[in-house]
């Protein structure tokens, strides 16, 4: 049984990030296809196109959460509020504009 990693003395527990190597759940492909067909019936996706769109959404949400957390820390708040998320969304949408 492998030993569990313990943070060093003086290191904040919140600073440690554990990353899982395996994905526990698969993308809800049927649901995604149904939503795409409802919204854009003329859109033709290749076989794994829905998975790529799902991955893009997950990456956007991850960036949004990180930026909102940074805004919260800058404002010296303990809780991420609606205003923090809206400010983060503005920043991220500006960055992702091509």
UniProtKB/TrEMBL annotation:
Gene Ontology annotations of biological process type: cell division; chromosome segregation; kinetochore assembly; mitotic cell cycle
Family matches, as Pfam families: CENP-W
Any Gene Ontology CC annotation: inner kinetochore
Subcellular location: Chromosome, Centromere, Kinetochore; Nucleus matrix
Keywords of the record: Cell cycle, Cell division, Centromere, Chromosome, DNA-binding, Kinetochore, Mitosis, Nucleus
Any one GO molecular-function label of the UniProt entry: protein heterodimerization activity
Chief subcellular location: nucleus
InterPro entries assigned to the protein according to its UniProt record, in alphabetical order: CENP-W (IPR028847), CENP-W/WIP1 (IPR052484), Histone-fold (IPR009072)
Record's function text: Component of the CENPA-NAC (nucleosome-associated) complex, a complex that plays a central role in assembly of kinetochore proteins, mitotic progression and chromosome segregation. The CENPA-NAC complex recruits the CENPA-CAD (nucleosome distal) complex and may be involved in incorporation of newly synthesized CENPA into centromeres. Part of a nucleosome-associated complex that binds specifically to histone H3-containing nucleosomes at the centromere, as opposed to nucleosomes containing CENPA.
PANTHER family the UniProt entry points to: CENTROMERE PROTEIN W (PTHR34832:SF1)
Binding partners and assembly: Heterodimer with CENPT; this dimer coassembles with CENPS-CENPX heterodimers at centromeres to form the tetrameric CENP-T-W-S-X complex, which is a subcomplex of the large constitutive centromere-associated network (CCAN, also known as the interphase centromere complex or ICEN). Interacts with NPM1.
Family membership noted in the UniProt record: Belongs to the CENP-W/WIP1 family.
Record's protein name: Centromere protein W
Gene name for this UniProt entry: CENPW
């Amino acid at each position: 049984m492998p030993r569990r990693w313990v943070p060093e003395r003086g290191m904040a527990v919140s600073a440690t990030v554990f990353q899982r190597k395996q994905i526990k759940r698969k993308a809800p492909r049927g649901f995604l296809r149904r939503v795409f067909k409802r919204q854009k019936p003329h859109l033709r996706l290749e076989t794994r196109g829905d998975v790529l769109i799902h991955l893009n959404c997950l990456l956007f949400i991850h960036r949004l959460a990180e930026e909102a957390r940074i805004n919260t820390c800058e404002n010296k708040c303990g809780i991420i509020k609606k205003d923090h998320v809206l400010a983060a969304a503005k920043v991220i949408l500006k960055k992702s504009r091509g």
